[in-house]
Amino acid sequence: MSASLCTPATFAPVLSGAAILNLSTNLVTGVNSTVSSTFNYNHPTIKVTNATYCNVTVTYTHSGANDTINVETWLPMNDTYNGRLQATGGGGWVAGRFFLSYQTMTAAIGQGYAAVTTDAGLGSATEPTSWGLESPGNPNLNLLQDLASVSLADEAVIAKSLIQSFYGTGPAHSYWSGCSQGGRQGLMLAQRYPDIYDGIVASSPAINWAQFIPALYYSQLMMNLMGQYPKGCELDAIGNAAIAACDGLDGVVDGLISDMDACSFDAFSTVGTVVQNCSQTGTDIPISATAATVANLTWTGARSANGSFLWYGKSFGADLSGSATGQGDAATVCSQNGTCVGNDADANPLLAIDWAKFFIQADANFNMDNITHEQFDSIFQSSVQRYNDIIGTADANLTAFKAAGGKMLTYHGLNDQVIAPKGTEDYYNAVTAAVPDVQSFYRFYQVPGLQHCSGGNGGQPTAIFDAMVAWVENGTVPETLPISFTGNNGTAVNRKLCSYPLKPKYDGMGDSNSADSFVCS
Ligand SMILES: *[C@@H]1O[C@H](CO)[C@@H](O)[C@H](O)[C@H]1NC(C)=O
Ligand SMILES: *[C@@H]1O[C@H](CO)[C@@H](O)[C@H](O)[C@H]1NC(C)=O
Ligand SMILES: *[C@@H]1O[C@H](CO)[C@@H](O)[C@H](O)[C@H]1NC(C)=O
Ligand SMILES: *[C@@H]1O[C@H](CO)[C@@H](O)[C@H](O)[C@H]1NC(C)=O
Ligand SMILES: *[C@@H]1O[C@H](CO)[C@@H](O)[C@H](O)[C@H]1NC(C)=O
Ligand SMILES: *[C@@H]1O[C@H](CO)[C@@H](O)[C@H](O)[C@H]1NC(C)=O
Ligand SMILES: *[C@@H]1O[C@H](CO)[C@@H](O)[C@H](O)[C@H]1NC(C)=O
Ligand SMILES: *[C@@H]1O[C@H](CO)[C@@H](O)[C@H](O)[C@H]1NC(C)=O
Ligand SMILES: *[C@@H]1O[C@H](CO)[C@@H](O)[C@H](O)[C@H]1NC(C)=O
Ligand SMILES: *[C@@H]1O[C@H](CO)[C@@H](O)[C@H](O)[C@H]1NC(C)=O
Ligand SMILES: *[C@@H]1O[C@H](CO)[C@@H](O)[C@H](O)[C@H]1NC(C)=O
Ligand SMILES: *[C@@H]1O[C@H](CO)[C@@H](O)[C@H](O)[C@H]1NC(C)=O
């Protein structure tokens, strides 16, 4: 029984430049769980029955860096082990070792993978208050670099060493699976550590961090400068009108915009249209010019005081108010009397505020409520100047990754309310320009209707990880990915995602609920 090997004496990981502080093990038995695809990005729902694994947690520090990092590796018993390593990424400010990584790891164990996650030295914090400043006035650059890149290489070295010790041989194949922060981590691995993983699934990636994070405050800035704040119901109604206007462009009316680039919609055309039973007031209200202005500028994206481009906006169909997701660039809170103010507590502006506080101003008490447009521009510029190389993760030169035989897949929801999908599209285009024959090792899929990683009306790419394994191990090229969802009328709808730059288009004849009726063109 490999269970008897689940003791600290079995393992002796060595990490260059680091000191191992502790290694603990415990045998976990009888794990039964149904891991829902909603919390298992890149994978379908997985039923785990009576799984047993050895939990090995390695604690280490980089000499002189004042960090303490925990890498947690789960090793299934050798009769269920499938010979593969699956590393799982984080989300938001979290590198791993949180609810979502444990969901994915549980599913991975159930399928026979060895699984690993790291906290990058950030402990269990979900935002940077506890670690963002090394001391007042000094951003914690060591921990930011641990999150951005350094912990990712360490994690893989440790996991591969533990696997070697436990099973007597290293993993036959190694994979990364992540979304959002986890998607960014995957891209960083391909960019800086091209030899580690055979396959990387890097979804809805938080790349272009130095730009997109401060840009999450742009709508709040503009509302503050105008001193006017729309009600969430108005923004929701404007978004729904945009979807209705562009829904049919792919040849089928299904509540989804599949061809975002073909969509143009004038928010100002909705002004005066009545929203019935507005959820903020409980009354019928006309859409205001303020709401149209805010929708328009949130779609347009961050611009400097002199009007120059800073970053992309959200697409038509994205949740701008945060009503549906709690992540809305233009989120407001309204009083009984119908007066609204900006909602700094919404997750999107909060990301930007925390970033500016700890990493730009280095002042835990910094308040953005009254900043000028010029101050916003300077925060944005400082972010790019100081942090693009650390955590921007947009290096398009994947030559070494390709040469190492690596494969990568990325999806991005077209209705992503947190990370503008145009940033990922830009990155893929840049890789296409930088490395010959991009499709031979890296593919990208835009997902109609999908919100950030999961959610929305158009389904989730649950087959992408298994498609990666088949590509790496069998050479099966994922020209398309299947996706399915329940239509508005309760019907099962099957569609396909196309490898960018192709887009799915209805053939005009077949059953619009069948993937066969769509072509990639
Ligand atoms: C999990 O299910 C198995 C039966 O398949 C059972 O023997 C085991 O006790 C269950 N584990 C727990 C923790 O309940
Ligand atoms: C569950 O796994 C344990 C080993 O951990 C084994 O002894 C037991 O027979 C299994 N139970 C079932 C129902 O398969
Ligand atoms: C694995 O070990 C670590 C360190 O002891 C512990 O914090 C964690 O809860 C353990 N996980 C499981 C599932 O046993
Ligand atoms: C190390 O970090 C801790 C916080 O994690 C801090 O309290 C301590 O002052 C730091 N030590 C040094 C030497 O910087
Ligand atoms: C599991 O490992 C043990 C040694 O620890 C070995 O005797 C056994 O054959 C292995 N089983 C499998 C299925 O590899
Ligand atoms: C149900 O909805 C789907 C997708 O929204 C559509 O393709 C189909 O035609 C609808 N079926 C009926 C019976 O309305
Ligand atoms: C208005 O919406 C609320 C829920 O937001 C609901 O409880 C109420 O019944 C609705 N009123 C009307 C007149 O539709
Ligand atoms: C915003 O409004 C301006 C002026 O009407 C228009 O030119 C622009 O296309 C709009 N932007 C979006 C994203 O709709
Ligand atoms: C509405 O209520 C808010 C909070 O109670 C208050 O600050 C504001 O002055 C009120 N506005 C009007 C127009 O009554
Ligand atoms: C922002 O300005 C308003 C109005 O001048 C003022 O009431 C508020 O205290 C200011 N907030 C901060 C954080 O400075
Ligand atoms: C791209 O990366 C390769 C391999 O790491 C390197 O040889 C090459 O110089 C890089 N190209 C550019 C334009 O930096
Ligand atoms: C590879 O192809 C074989 C034969 O078709 C199949 O049995 C196996 O499941 C495939 N493996 C993967 C990882 O897709």
From TrEMBL:
Entry EC no(s): 3.1.1.-
Cleavable signal peptide: 1-30
MF (Gene Ontology): feruloyl esterase activity; metal ion binding
PANTHER family membership: CARBOXYLIC ESTER HYDROLASE, FERULOYL ESTERASE B-RELATED
Tagged with keyword Disulfide bond: yes
UniProt name for this protein: Carboxylic ester hydrolase
Family: Belongs to the tannase family.
Swiss-Prot/TrEMBL keywords: Calcium, Disulfide bond, Hydrolase, Metal-binding, Serine esterase, Signal
Tagged with keyword Hydrolase: yes
Broad EC category: hydrolase
